[in-house]
Design a protein that fits this description.
Layout lengths: L27 E2 L11 H10 L12 H11 L6 E4 L1 H13 L6 E4 L5 H8 L4 E4 L18 E5 L11 H9 L6 E4 L3 H4 L13 E6 L12 E5 L1 H11 L9 H11 L2 H24 L3 E2 L6 E5 L5 H10 L2 E2 L11 E5 L3 H17 L1
Parallel strand pairs: 1-11, 3-4, 3-5, 5-6, 6-7
Antiparallel strand pairs: 2-8, 7-8, 9-10, 10-12
Helix pairs in contact: 1-8, 2-8, 3-4, 3-7
Bound molecules: pyridoxal-5'-phosphate.
Length: 354
């Protein structure tokens, strides 16, 4: 650290992203919950036709993109804000809706970026432990008077909370914003989006990175009542109005025009998740019930860190976390059937060695 780095960041621990190998041919990549399916050829062809000349600045309003997305989400365009990945709208939410009087609250086992955003925005926060079975107890969030962040399905557990349970949490904290991070909601089918007109304190965040096959494009969005969106827009126009580049805007619109492919891919991934869960269970794994495009699994006889290393030696990348409560687990992205069979074959080899 240089002597110029502000001491206000003394305790800032940055987020650790999953490995992104440059030589993709060496690995079956099941570590960062991307789609195994690239955007369709039709979508990429369409994107070329939509691209605004790169000598011009991008559309700061993302007008066309927002209009087409609003129709799909059944909301108004001004109930949407577009951001550089949903990470960006989550960061904005910590900046805009948390302070000393509105401390943040989130689970101990959840998206690793929440504590980082809280620290970087100099926001106080409370960590609420999941129950022993790794589920969220809605009672722990009822009427707590804090700005709540809940990933639903949760990551890395994959466990989904019902929209009814979330509604009780939202209704019982009327003086604070409740952020529901729906990065994986297309795989669970459970969403709080219809609640935005009923609760002025609800912000739902979503992403093109998982179900829509656009992780590298960096495109996410928030859905909320117009007043909350206006606050977030005030912040965005004070930071980086050109947060979405023209190539990503074109790709985003193109992907929205091929929803059929997106829906078909979600169905395949959900079928592969059921297959992977069943096959891992047969092999003695404990697999948490997942509503996402990954499974969180542990084997009673193979330490989590050992399994991670042995899979990596065999060219299979999964995600291992070292936090005490979950270090016996690995988070495995659901890929194609072929990729899952490669994973299972490697698991069989490792079990023989053990
Ligand atoms: C992947 C993920 C995100 C955001 O990803 P972006 O690529 O920034 O849209 C947000 N929340 C959770 C829980 C995630 O797993």
């Amino acid at each position: 650290m240089s002597r110029y780095f502000s001491s206000k960041f003394d305790r800032l621990t940055p987020y650790t992203p999953g490995e992104q190998p440059s030589d993709l041919s060496r690995f079956v990549k099941l570590n960062t919950n991307e789609s195994p399916f690239p955007p369709s050829e039709a979508a990429m062809e369409c994107a070329r036709g939509l691209l605004r000349p790169l000598n011009l600045y991008s559309d700061t309003t993302c007008g066309d993109l927002r209009r087409e997305l609003a129709a799909i989400e059944h909301v108004d365009p001004d109930e949407l804000i577009m951001t550089n990945g949903s990470d960006e709208v989550l960061d904005y939410a910590f900046a805009c809706f948390c302070d000393r009087d509105h401390p943040a609250a989130f689970a101990d086992i959840t998206y690793g970026f929440y504590p980082v955003f809280a620290q970087r925005n100099l926001v106080p926060y409370t960590v609420i432990p999941l129950k022993d079975d790794m589920t969220i107890d809605p009672e722990d969030y009822t009427g707590i008077g804090k700005t709540i962040f809940i990933a639903n399905p949760n990551a890395p557990t994959g466990i989904t909370l019902s929209a009814d349970a979330l509604e009780k949490i939202i209704a019982s904290n009327p003086d604070n914003v409740v952020v529901v991070d729906e990065a994986y909601a297309d795989f669970s089918g459970v969403t709080c989006v219809p609640l935005i007109r009923k609760y002025p304190n609800l912000l739902v965040t979503r992403t093109f990175s998982k179900s829509r096959s656009l992780a590298g494009g960096r495109l996410g969005y928030g859905i909320a009542c117009k007043e909350l969106i206006r606050d977030l827009e005030t912040f965005r126009y004070s930071l980086n109005p050109y947060n979405i580049n023209s190539m990503t805007i074109a790709a985003g619109i193109a992907v929205l025009r091929d929803e059929e492919t997106v829906r078909a891919n979600i169905a395949v991934i959900n079928a592969n998740r059921a297959y992977t869960t069943e096959e891992l269970t047969k092999r003695g794994f404990r697999v948490l019930p997942s509503g996402a495009n990954f499974v969180f699994a542990m084997h009673p006889d193979i330490p989590g860190g050992v399994l991670y290393e042995k899979l990596k030696d065999r060219g299979i990348l999964v995600r291992h976390f070292t936090a005490e409560r979950i270090r016996e687990y690995n988070r495995i992205t659901v890929g194609t059937k072929e990729q899952m069979d490669l994973l299972l074959a490697a698991v069989d080899e490792i079990r023989k060695e053990n």
